């Protein structure tokens, strides 16, 4: 049950709603567990106001030159531009920009990804850059459009570009970017975990929007102090001109250049979030499944429910704990597994307890019935014993009468002892406590003994009993119990047959099975009755009507005895025609007599 719930919980983790929930949980966590950082970057924004004051988009190259000029004067640590300088505008403006770029010592330009490769800056501009251009791709999550990760590497055939933010970090630090196999990128002694197989993604640890200063171009000289020593990201933020917008986990929309600055802060502070490994997630889920199972296996009632509530709370808390250790654990899996397994285990416990209750109730009523039966059966011999002993005490009886009464007391107390023994045997057999002896004996022995015992009964009804073939099998087990079983079948055949009928006893060895059968020409049973005859205290209506005394307990004991010997009882019967009860037991091949029988056939 718990395993099934676990499997459902784990597999549900791949579904669309689960991924949405994981994204939602990630956003909640990343906005609640905020990094407490001093920022290292500023954004210089070519915003609406800049365009208004400086001639709009057609004048962009001029605006850029002017902005860079002023930025250079403010002495930044490095400058990264998020404007693709791939096309010439006019020679005058381009030359001006060239001159400005030359004056910036730590410069990174950007490139875009076009259908046929990278759209790189013009060579005349790139010539002054301190590193290769950085790509400016920001990837939205397919399900909800939020940009949580950016690819640090982009490869088109023959060319590779690092992200603008990564290049900005390398240039700021004056250190090269190298690959650190198998799954990392190194900038100086900083290792960034970013597996190549998944496109080297970097979780951006977004800072609240106002933490990275955004300085409009017209304000650069006024706010030069904020730029000093910082890495500047220059880009267009005006809604009318900027193509790239980023939706953050804060559910805010920011411009692409701000997104790059945010990624730069993550890289620069070196606190990277990584996805949890699949086996970690699996183990966490297994842990919750096992815990839920154990809670409901070992405890019940309120204590179980309280502990389980704590477990469910822990399932919610585990992703938080991982996040605090910079690991992104999908929240859905543990929560789903904990809930499903708790529900499964609680339901199972409920039904298990109910089943136990039912079983113990039926056991109690069975026991009560058995006591009833025993008390009822014991009354007859007890009355006889009491009566006889009273007569003996009260009257001076002749010797013959006295002997008769003594014999009666003796035989009735033996009967009483037998009843008590049977009662105890039934109980012990039922509880599986009775130890069977493991003796080897010939089937013929018990057949003979039973035939002798049943003869007076059969004679009284003028029923003939014939043993059809030589009974040539062997049993290994409890001789006394087997005799009890066979005797019961034989007495039933006599009891439930009309006078002057025949009973046949025969044995067969068939496909490794030894069969010992008693066939009568008695009252028989229909199929429905046949199903019930091994139940304790069950008697057929025909048996009741026959006037034969009975308790309906014998066959249940017989069945238990045979089952405990590893065998079964086959019954065929037809109402009014007769029945055939067959004891079927695995043949013992090492038995010489049986081997002999097999050889004969
Ligand atoms: P009892 O004979 O004391 O009633 P058993 O447990 O030996 O109890 O048998 C259960 C019932 O199975 C009997 O009451 C009778 O209805 C039916 N039964 C058993 N043996 C035969 C038989 N040989 N022919 C017809 N009915 C039988």
What topology does this entry show?
Blueprint (H helix, E strand, L loop, with lengths): L1 H11 L3 H17 L8 E6 L1 H7 L5 H14 L4 E4 L9 H12 L4 E2 L1 E5 L2 E3 L3 H4 L7 E2 L13 E3 L1 E4 L2 E4 L1 H10 L3 E4 L3 E4 L2 E4 L7 E3 L10 E3 L7 H4 L3 E6 L8 E3 L5 E3 H14 L4 E2 L2 H21 L2 H24 L2 E2 L3 H63 L4 H32 L8 E4 H18 L3 E4 L6 E4 L1 H17 L6 E9 L2 E7 L7 H6 L8 H6 L7 H11 L3 E7 L3 E9 L5 H9 L1
Parallel strand pairs: 1-14, 1-15, 2-3, 2-15, 4-6, 18-19, 21-23
Antiparallel strand pairs: 4-5, 7-13, 8-9, 10-11, 11-12, 16-17, 20-22, 23-24, 24-26, 25-26
The site of adenosine-5'-diphosphate (ADP) has 22 residues, from helix 15 and helix 18.
Structural write-up:
- This protein is α/β, with parallel strands linked by helices.
- The chain has three domains: 1-33 and 276-396; 36-270, no CATH class; 435-601, Heat Shock Protein 90 (2-Layer Sandwich), CATH 3.30.565.10.
- The protein has 19 helices and 26 strands.
- The chain has a five-stranded parallel beta sheet with strand order 3-2-15-1-14, sandwiched between helices.
- Strand 4 (110-114) and strand 5 (117-119) form a beta hairpin.
- Helix 11 (301-324) runs antiparallel to helix 12 and helix 14 runs parallel beside helix 15 (479-495).
- It is rod-shaped.
- The protein binds adenosine-5'-diphosphate (ADP).
Features:
single chain, alpha/beta, Heat Shock Protein 90, 3 domains, five-stranded parallel beta sheet, five-stranded mixed beta sheet, 19 helices, binds adenosine-5'-diphosphate
In total, how many beta strands?
26
Number of domains: 3
Question: Widest sheet: strand order?
Answer: 3-2-15-1-14
Distance between the termini: 52 Å
Range of strand content: 15-25%
What's the tally of helices?
Answer: 19
What form results from the Cα inertia axes?
rod-shaped
Cofactors and ligands present? Answer: adenosine-5'-diphosphate
Percent in helix: 40-55%
Mean pLDDT: 89
Tell me the major beta sheet: 5 strands, parallel
Ranges with pLDDT <50 over ≥5 residues? 590-601
